[in-house]
Amino acid sequence: MSSLNQKTEQLKRYLEKLGRVTVAVSGGVDSMTLAFVAHEVLSSNAKMVHSISPAVPPHDTQRIQEFATKYGWNIHFVESGEIRTPSYQSNPVNRCYYCKSCLYSTLGALSFGQVVSGTNLDDLDDYRPGLVAAKEYQVVHPFVEAGFSKQDIRQLALQLGLPALSRLPASPCLASRIETGIYIDDNNLALVNAVEQHLRAKINSETLRCRVQKQQVSIELDDDTLARLTSQEVTSLTQEVGLITARFDSSVPIQFMRYERGSAFVGDKQCLTS
């Protein structure tokens, strides 16, 4: 198995061979680390592009802005417009396909070299309809080409002197919290963000998700956090979340429960990649 240093050298050689790239930067550890390396290797020939959207947590956009300023990135902000696309708004189980199609068509239209993503080897084993869109738009995945797993990327970020980034919890787009079939709009995305930001200020939790479901709003936490909360604390937090959801005209019950990956996806998850 290749060492991290070997994989890193392979990554750099791959980027050098591409020569000019547009990096799709979401604000997570994968795309941010790729952007950092791409800038290191290609300088201004690496354009970092971030799509501002109601589905993107504002603190992710802020993180990108801070990195771009600190490290002198060639940064470009766009709106890919998925939130106005009926196929996306209807929230089918392959919603990510429509989101990534909007994103990659927008990035491709910039005509700035090869579009690259932060996809890694671990992503290939998950249900990722967005990879179908990536294939259709000829997007390439340097971390996959260089054999990087998610843990490899975290170790690379640490090696690059980015410890806070290396520890960044996974934070998929806000739309991933909306149960399949529930119409996606600015209102329910803002609800999710408001609840999560409030709870993150209250709870030191490794994993925290606010799920908007047909019958309830579920607050999903990792096992350790759930075990640590007293019944009185849960009651108090439930009341606080209720006040927030009421601002968004939501009156469904609120339930604290164990985190379950992908629990908002309901339906046939048959892999669409070939």
What's this model, at a glance?
By secondary structure, the protein is an alpha/beta fold. It is built from 12 helices and 7 strands. The chain has a 4-stranded parallel beta sheet, sandwiched between helices. Strands 5-6-7 form a 3-stranded mixed beta sheet.
Structure, described:
InterPro entries: LarE, Ni-pincer_cofactor_biosynth, Rossmann-like_a/b/a_fold. The active site is at residue 173. This is NAD/GMP synthase domain-containing protein. GO terms for molecular function: sulfurtransferase activity. It contains twelve helices and seven strands. The chain has 274 residues and is α/β, with parallel strands linked by helices. The chain folds into two domains: 4-166, Rossmann fold, CATH 3.40.50; 174-258, 2-Layer Sandwich (Alpha-Beta Plaits), CATH 3.30.70. The strands form two sheets. It has a four-stranded parallel beta sheet, with helices on both faces. A three-stranded mixed beta sheet has the order 5-6-7. Helix 10 (186-202) packs antiparallel against helix 12 (231-247). The longest helix has 17 residues, at 186-202. The chain is globular, with a radius of gyration of 19 Å. 37% of the residues are buried.
